[in-house]
């Protein structure tokens, strides 16, 4: 099985800004919170995350978004809400932008990420520990952009998501093997990446 995800090389109709949520309560506590059962209602932004967003918005250096789509987890929803308020935009929840499910490690210490990522390096389709596979994450994340490309033209769209899904999507878009998604420089909380 191929360990890459076919990315479209054609010109996009829209401009995309990919944003990782601000520092969260889960980050502060060193916990894996990856399922809707906990992520939708709990573990929002930490005080550090709130400060990150205030600084980011004060010194905004990217094109102003015209639309904002976000994972419906609390931490991404709170992040998107602050950006939307700054630019006077409405929010659009998009469940396909949710965190990657880390299966058996839900609610456990974030050191367990490394165990999953070691498996990712060998097989992007693996579901060890009950995790969502890298190939599944790549497919749903890429599907968001594909649907936006069909529906819209000339928009600047901010997609607010989570570290692993964004790293996986960027790896796919760059036509890199999905086994290398952790070879990328990790996306920091409240960071923004503009697609070329």
Automatic annotation (TrEMBL):
Coiled coil: none
Superkingdom in the source lineage: Bacteria
Alphabetical list of SUPFAM superfamilies matching this protein: Phosphoglycerate mutase-like
CDD domains: HP_PGM_like
SMART domains named in the record: PGAM
Pfam families membership: His_Phos_1 (PF00300)
Protein name as it appears in the record: Histidine phosphatase family protein
Organism (species): Billgrantia kenyensis
């Amino acid at each position: 099985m191929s360990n890459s995800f076919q990315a479209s090389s054609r010109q996009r109709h829209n401009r995309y800004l990919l944003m990782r949520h601000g520092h969260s309560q889960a980050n502060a506590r060193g916990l894996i919170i990856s399922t809707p059962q906990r992520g939708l209602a709990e573990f929002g932004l930490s005080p550090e995350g709130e400060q990150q967003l205030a600084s980011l918005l004060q010194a905004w250096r990217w094109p102003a978004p015209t639309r904002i789509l976000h994972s419906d987890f609390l931490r991404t929803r709170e992040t998107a809400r602050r950006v939307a308020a700054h630019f006077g935009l409405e929010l659009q929840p998009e469940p396909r932008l949710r965190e990657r499910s880390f299966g058996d490690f839900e609610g456990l210490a974030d050191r367990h990420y490394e165990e999953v990522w070691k498996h990712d390096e060998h097989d992007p389709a693996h579901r060890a520990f009950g995790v969502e596979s890298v190939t599944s994450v790549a497919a749903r994340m890429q599907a968001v952009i594909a649907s936006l490309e069909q529906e819209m033209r000339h928009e600047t769209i901010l997609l607010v998501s989570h570290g692993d899904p964004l790293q996986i999507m960027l790896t796919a878009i760059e036509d890199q093997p999905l086994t290398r998604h952790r070879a990328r420089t990790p996306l920091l909380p409240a960071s923004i990446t503009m697609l070329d």
